[in-house]
Design brief:
Blueprint: E1 4-5, E2 11-12, E3 16-21, H1 25-35, E4 39-43, E5 48-53, H2 56-66, H3 75-87, H4 107-115, E6 116-123, E7 131-141, H5 151-160, E8 165-168, E9 176-179, E10 182-184
Antiparallel strand pairs: 1-2, 3-5, 4-5, 6-7, 7-9, 7-10, 8-9
Length: about 180
């Protein structure tokens, strides 16, 4: 592969970075071991580790491994990576969004692990019998970093989960949308 330089003559190279919460360090180490490449570093100021892959051959391996499995607008950033790698001499194909059923592979499990949460609330005060509420919630920004709306995807996900999309505002996120199926007993 040949190198590409910026207008300032600086070498441009891609990297793939995967963030892990501090408590998920064993998972990050296992993934790094199974891949056989990448470097792990602690991110300063937050409880996170970053697995960084910047060797060209390793990036090509990961790119081929995940191509065709994107379901959201993150595919646009991935297409930028493919374009860059093709400029360096690769011959990668731009596979489309994965529109298969959400139950056909393990994508949903990973998405829930990254963006979902489960809540159980038990209350005796003023209730006889005691009231138990179980809640499952998935939170996602409404607009991603490429200014693409994630609403239609969240709506599809909510329909699959027999729920609806609700807009919420949090101090740390603007225009957050959630899908919250509620199960009460």
């Amino acid at each position: 592969m040949r190198s590409i330089r910026s207008q300032n003559k600086k070498l441009i190279y891609p990297s793939i970075q995967i963030s892990f919460h501090l408590k998920d360090l064993p998972l990050a180490l296992l993934i790094q071991k199974n891949l056989g490449f990448g470097s792990l570093s602690r991110k300063k100021g937050v409880n996170a580790f970053i697995l960084t892959i910047n060797n060209k051959e390793d990036i090509l391996f990961i790119t081929n491994l995940i191509n065709g499995y994107f379901r959201t607008s993150k595919i646009n950033s991935f297409y930028n990576l493919i374009t860059y790698l093709n400029q360096l001499g690769s011959n990668l194909i731009f596979l489309p969004l994965d529109n298969s059923s959400l139950q056909s592979n393990s994508w949903l499990a990973g998405f829930i692990d990254a963006n979902g949460s489960f809540h159980i609330r038990y209350s005796e005060a003023g209730h006889y019998p005691a009231k138990v509420q179980c809640k499952f919630e998935i939170e996602q920004r409404q607009i991603d970093i490429s200014n693409s709306s994630l609403y239609s995807f969240m709506d599809k996900l909510a329909n699959f989960l027999l729920s609806s999309v609700k807009q919420a505002h949090r101090q740390y996120f603007k225009n957050l949308i959630t899908s919250t199926p509620k199960f009460e007993t």
